[in-house]
Write a structure and sequence with these properties.
This protein is mainly beta. It contains 1 helix and 25 strands. Strands 1-22-19-24-14-13-12 form a 7-stranded antiparallel β-sheet, with no helix packed on it. It has a 6-stranded antiparallel β-sheet with strand order 2-3-10-5-8-11. The longest helix is centred in the N-terminal third of the chain and has 4 residues. One of its GO terms (molecular function) is 5-deoxy-D-glucuronate isomerase activity. Its EC number is 5.3.1.30.
Length: 269
Amino acid sequence: MSERIVKPVLNPKADGTLLTVTPESAGWQYVGFQVVQLAEGQTLTRESGDQELCLVLLSGLANVSTREYTWEKIGKRMSVFEKIPPYSIYVSSSDRVEFTALTALEIAICAAPGKGTYPARLIAPEDVGVETRGYGNLERQIHNILPEQKEADSLLVVEVFTPDGHWSSYPPHKHDRDALPDESLLEETYYFRVQPEQGFAIQRIYTDDRAVDETLAVNNGEVVLVPCGYHPVGAPPGYEVYYLNVMAGPTRTWKFHNDPDHDWLMNKK
C-alpha cells in the first residue's frame, strides 16, 4: 500500500477516533486531520492549543460548546451523500471545544497553525458557498466551508461530490511552490467516502519530472496525503465519490497551477 494512504482503524478508539494525521506523521509542517465517530450520548473534548480547528459534522446531530459559546441541536444531514452543506465549528487557538452526540455522529477535525486572531463561530449550511464546477464528465458539486474569503489564520476547507464516471480536481493542478502571485504552497489531505461503500476512487499524484508518479486506488474512509504534485481524482462508473479537502501553508491563499499538457481542457465545452 502507498505511504500516501492513511487507513482508518477497524474499531474506533475509546474517544471515537478512527484515523489521525499529524504534521509529524505526514512528514510536513501545517495540516492535521482526524475523523471521530461517536455514539448517541458520547462526548468529545479537544483543546486547540497552538492550532486552529474547523470541525465538520460529516453526519449526525450534536450540542457543541467552546469556552465562550454554545450551540444546541446543530447538524442536519445523516449522510454526506445527502449532498447538503454541513454544519461546522471554527475554533481558534488556545480554545476548547466539546461535542455531545445527540445521534450517531461523525466529525472531521481539520487543524493548522493558529494565531488566535478570530473568535470561535458556527459555520451554518447557509454560510457555505455551493457551486457547480466543470462541464460534462468534469462536472462536480463544491461546498466551500472555509474558503480564503472567510476568516481564519491558516485553514482552507472544502468538500467535493464527484458523480459516478466523472473526474474532479481536474484538469490536474498543483500548489506546491511558494511562488506567489503565480502559485501558493499548500499541503492537502483528501478524506474519501464512496457510495456504495465497496467501491473505490482513483487518484493520481505526479510531478513534472515524474520523480513522484503514483496511481492510487482509494477505499471508503481513507485519507490521501498530497504534499506535492498534480492530484486528479476519478470516480468509477456506478460509484459516487465524496472527499473533504484540508489545505494549509505559509500563506492562506489557493493559487494553483494546471498541468500545461491538460490546460487546454479549461477552454473546451
